[in-house]
Design brief:
By secondary structure, the chain is an all-beta fold. The chain is 0% helix and 52% strand. The strands form two sheets. Strands 1, 2, 3, 4, 5, 6, 7, 10, 11, 12, 13 and 14 form a twelve-stranded antiparallel beta sheet that branches. A two-stranded antiparallel ribbon has the order 8-9.
Length: 184
């Protein structure tokens, strides 16, 4: 049993994510990219919305774009905790993790894409006799991409496992700028 009583809702850690794409697949085909991420402890640790430390995560992404804009993607990364390397919650320990995701995007109208994602993690340390920390959750949502390169996304979902901090429901929103080459 978790000894803390988390609050119902709130904001999590702030994350900055970059992307370096090695192959342009806007016309279709495979793409390989790296997406380094840094997170800053801005959420509540007691409510399981913060790692409580600066986190670093190099991540590899592979995706395939079909004609018409449908895409599938997979990613995997290693999350490094810069301090508080092992955090114990009663019978489970949260430490550095292998994090992964699988996703799909389906065009639904000009500029709009429906999205679905399955994401999870596996912690590399456990309390003797206790389970590994293995959260898994699913999200669905939509993204609007304007020709200027500005994209806005919104979605929601929840956890599939009863891992510590796994949400009953999560709402996400993001704004991104993706510079595009000018058409000739």
């Amino acid at each position: 049993e978790v000894p803390l009583q988390p609050t119902v809702a709130g904001v999590g850690d702030i994350r900055l994510v970059g992307k370096l794409q090695f192959v342009d697949n806007t016309q279709g085909g495979f793409c390989v990219a790296v997406t380094p991420e840094i997170s800053f402890p801005s959420g509540s640790v007691d409510s399981f919305r913060s790692e409580g430390t600066i986190g670093l995560m190099p991540r590899l992404v592979i995706d395939y774009r079909f004609a018409g804009g449908t895409f599938v993607a997979a990613n995997a990364g290693y999350f490094f905790r810069t301090s508080n390397r092992n955090v114990d919650y009663g019978v489970v320990r949260v430490s550095d993790q292998l994090r992964y995701g699988l996703g799909i995007g389906l065009p639904i109208a000009k500029g709009f894409i429906a999205l679905a994602e399955l994401a999870g993690a596996v912690s590399f340390s456990s309390i003797e006799g206790g389970p590994n920390y293995v959260p898994v959750e699913g999200l669905i949502g939509a993204r609007y991409a304007h020709r200027s390169g500005i994209e806005a996304s919104i979605g929601g979902g929840g956890g599939f496992t009863s891992a510590v901090g796994s949400p009953n429901f999560r709402i996400i929103a993001s704004v991104a700028y993706l510079p595009r080459a000018k058409r000739k």
